[in-house]
Amino acid sequence: MTSNQPIRAAVLGASGYTGADLIRLAARHPNIQITALIAKAHAGQPLGQVFPHLGSLDLPQLVTSDEVDWDSIDVAFCGLPHGTAHVEIAKLPERVKVIDMSADFRLRDLSTYAEWYGGEHGAPQLLSDAVYGLTEHYRDEIAGARIVACPGCYPTAVLLALLPLVKEKLIASEGIIIDAKSGVTGAGRSLKQNILFSEAGEGLSPYGIGSHRHVPEIEQEIGMAANQAVIVNFTPHLAPMARGELCTCYVQLPSGTTDADLRGALRDAYAASPFVRVMDEGVIPATQHVRGSNYCHVGVFADRIPGRAIVVSAIDNLVKGSAGQALQNFNVMHGLDESTALEQLPLFP
Amino acid sequence: MTSNQPIRAAVLGASGYTGADLIRLAARHPNIQITALIAKAHAGQPLGQVFPHLGSLDLPQLVTSDEVDWDSIDVAFCGLPHGTAHVEIAKLPERVKVIDMSADFRLRDLSTYAEWYGGEHGAPQLLSDAVYGLTEHYRDEIAGARIVACPGCYPTAVLLALLPLVKEKLIASEGIIIDAKSGVTGAGRSLKQNILFSEAGEGLSPYGIGSHRHVPEIEQEIGMAANQAVIVNFTPHLAPMARGELCTCYVQLPSGTTDADLRGALRDAYAASPFVRVMDEGVIPATQHVRGSNYCHVGVFADRIPGRAIVVSAIDNLVKGSAGQALQNFNVMHGLDESTALEQLPLFP
Amino acid sequence: MTSNQPIRAAVLGASGYTGADLIRLAARHPNIQITALIAKAHAGQPLGQVFPHLGSLDLPQLVTSDEVDWDSIDVAFCGLPHGTAHVEIAKLPERVKVIDMSADFRLRDLSTYAEWYGGEHGAPQLLSDAVYGLTEHYRDEIAGARIVACPGCYPTAVLLALLPLVKEKLIASEGIIIDAKSGVTGAGRSLKQNILFSEAGEGLSPYGIGSHRHVPEIEQEIGMAANQAVIVNFTPHLAPMARGELCTCYVQLPSGTTDADLRGALRDAYAASPFVRVMDEGVIPATQHVRGSNYCHVGVFADRIPGRAIVVSAIDNLVKGSAGQALQNFNVMHGLDESTALEQLPLFP
Amino acid sequence: MTSNQPIRAAVLGASGYTGADLIRLAARHPNIQITALIAKAHAGQPLGQVFPHLGSLDLPQLVTSDEVDWDSIDVAFCGLPHGTAHVEIAKLPERVKVIDMSADFRLRDLSTYAEWYGGEHGAPQLLSDAVYGLTEHYRDEIAGARIVACPGCYPTAVLLALLPLVKEKLIASEGIIIDAKSGVTGAGRSLKQNILFSEAGEGLSPYGIGSHRHVPEIEQEIGMAANQAVIVNFTPHLAPMARGELCTCYVQLPSGTTDADLRGALRDAYAASPFVRVMDEGVIPATQHVRGSNYCHVGVFADRIPGRAIVVSAIDNLVKGSAGQALQNFNVMHGLDESTALEQLPLFP
User: Fold this and answer.
1) What is the pLDDT of residues A209-218, one digit of tens each?
2) Is the pTM for the entire model greater than 0.95?
3) D309: helix, coil or strand?
4) Domains of chain C, first to last
5) Residue in C with minimal Cα distance to A184
6) Interface membership of B289 toward C (CB under 8 Å)
């Protein structure tokens, strides 16, 4: 970072939870000037009307994408839903860097995208510009990318826990079982009956068994690390909390490998990564201990069944699982300290 | 049931959650007269002081066990902690039937008990009088038993889901992975920091990984059904809700077996069981749909990984997982309709 | 009740929370046969699809009102929204008794209705058939009524606490301040952003300050008891829980009157009312102690400010505040024991 | 602030919630070096064992007060309980500035302290050194103080809402009714049955009616502003959330005064105060919109009862109600920008 010029940022999808959390963090970033807030359905409103907790900020009011002077924008954070995201991103001038929190540029294979996301990709020409934004594993690619496709919240938690182990062949890439639990913000801010307080509160259930759209993303990355096609079990559950995601991964070990080996490999992999904390033996990750922060806590435990282990990871789905990782990628793309504006400690209780 | 004489019941451990839920249900049982409420630390207090929600009941005040005229008691429900339960039960006259909600008489093997519960069993002579009280699988034994050892909450949910499948050899008894989630009442009413509202709320984490005391009970019953020793993975999680337990069981199928086969076998097994409901294909069990009731909802789902399936069960840990099942066993023991006083529908929302 | 003929009941608005709670309770009523479930938008679906927790019931599927053979119906419970309720009720044959849980027949004055509910009443001719269904205060009128207008949830809690005191002139009818707190089910099941789990959870705020539609109902009844027009402060708050309503009423006392006098008057007023429990001095009502039940707990406390007192009442808004009170009125209308099918004890925790 | 020397801080009571939140914020303060963490019962443990969410910090382990080299400390933040706090503070060298979050130095009158806090004050000689730390109202006094007694959480919310109005005689100082609602962290981290998740969750009730220890503090400050002794009603409620406090204040207006007048006076009073936000007409404060932040939102509403108004304020009890205000006072005491290290925006959802 050689200049003191602020980097001018637009936020697409400013009325959603990921948009809001991005604004919450970016507003305190010393190098960012939030220049445009885009939220079609709320255009003309001040941000504080849509998100009263952000009402103290002195920011421009919400506008449509067409109203933005894109010449004055350096980088666009995109919190739009998949399908819409790539359409809007395709309209942006090429000089605008894009940090996309949607699913639209995560999958490297167009037919996989079509299969899981209900139709052809509308901007296939941009895919080659896009890099998978799992910061800790793709720093170099991210540093030079025009488009960074931030991973889904679940894949972030799963891949941070498993990728180094697959790469080091410390776990089998077959038969991986991922039992995931998410807070309700993972379902976004759109109105659905199952996420009403009265329905989701004081209850827990799986959903999307075998069909959750984060599956292909997990399989893509684990497959690449394993150098072979991989099929995983991924069973998400909706838990009665707003934020937080916990992935309990059940894995098979090669003969002779122990949980301590896994812990060691994870420590090595993340030695230079400030946000991934590998827990000491016996210390159990919990979502409330990362809430509101960009941390990912990972723990490894021996299984009662010989030859198996359990790898547990916890993140805040809106921060490390979305807006925080987006900002982390922004920092990497702009040669800034990776932690800039992400130093907030978890809010507990 | 040939007589209209009320059956006189004592409740040991009336100041705990399982005791309270037993009283809540038994107070409306047409054949039960609650004659003694035992809670050592609260002796001398009215029940309404310990549990204001039960203050409308006209019941005797809390006493110590010594103060009870056991000649006037026909049956004792025991909601004491393990270790204490068998000591108190051993003191009771032999003519008093016992329905024990503790762990003390669940394990058939004394050395397993000693290993998991921290020491020798203090009343081994009573073990042969005891029957494992998983109602749907041991009705005949329960009908004639003096002591019924009601299963733990987790084992209830797991075994109702898996036992018929193991017996029919529709799933492998090796490599069973059980990812369980429980509400906070599962931890009881004693004061522990991790179950304070401020600590447990808005957060989720595993606990007792590989070491939870419900493991030997699950392995005992699955092992008996499989006719061989079995080791399972059992990983419980604490979820931010008061009641409810959901077990997500990951199982291997014999070649050619499908999720529909499993669903069919479960339906057959529970055709005459009013409280186990096998969900239609695609319908997902949820704890909020059984809350406050004696129902167990079970669903079967194909796994993405070929040759595997996912069996999900949901119960209210204090009802079907404890007090409700105890009352169900009471009904079986006394030749009453199994559903008596258990007809309450789930409380949703 | 001279006959053993079941009373055939229809439920209008069977897909809402009050409808569901009515079904939950009525399904266990020994004299009721639920004959028709009406839910326009869900016609053709089984109840278990709309409310999985009621899926064990063997009930007719949801239909439109037009599909019902009203000759086969004796009584209609109406859980429709205000405005719609009176339109549907006006269509029913005169021989069908109506227990309305909406607001449409609560206000005795048509202009007050028009002012607060946004327009002229569409069935003014029925108003003279309607009785205000606050059971404990209008038993005689309810017994002979064709239409019973069950009070709103807030008015139920407030009036049970204050009416006897106003009647006995033990509190001033001027300057009554009611700070009310409700769980989220009070807002119904329709999709609104502020009742999403992620918005309502872990937060608390007032709403509808000075403009909540339960105000005229409270003022009507207190005014009648006081024999003069009354204006009250009523400030409701949304609290992060599904069920439960607590009203903290701040009142002025005539010279020489004490909190003990108020407590005594309430005890006298409710001596024959099984569901209103006046707490002993120092015992504080709490919503969790009435959850799922038809109880109302009332407590009286001296204020630090001399000459004032605080009257606190707690109910379950869906039970005593709606479906339970409706069933209680049904019992009164049919000469049954007032408690029939309402004996369920509170579900705590 | 003329020097770049870090200010060396000790935290007394580092194992409680206020201590933890102080550390969370102070750890990111550019001028503070946390030099000692004192927590008697946990001495010898690393902070991350007591508060895993703070485990990423590189801080000294917990010690007893005796183990601290007080010569190396410039300022002590005290999060000890009342009664203990003044004993420990009295032991500190006079050159150590003290920012006390306990109640011990809030009351100016020793007999009032003795009456409400159960006995004589043990360090009366220090009272004259202490300043009441309601930052927005006592900046000058705080700037020069040795001991700053941070207000209680409730008094902070109440006084920010009412003090300017009392001073300007825009509300009567008699007959003020304060209905307050707090999250469970307000009760601290010590083990009590009523704050277990299973007891406090999904329920709401008043507590300490007429006897809460924050009463004398509120009366002291309102009395001083009114130049006469004042008695208020203060009725706190426990709400099922971890953080957040909402005070709904019912007040009488002098003839001719309107809610707009009150709003205007509050805006004037807080024009230079970055953390107090006076809401526009019709915008309602909510605790979830200040969570985790140092903001206080205040709204004014007309009452239905003529001549009255409702003033509502919302804070995070652990931040603006304790640790945040403590840090704000630290900034004032050291001539720093009042917002330093308090810029974190609210965490919503």
Assistant:
1) 989 999 999 9
2) yes
3) strand
4) 7-151+321-333 (3.40.50.720), 154-317 (3.30.360.10)
5) C198
6) yes
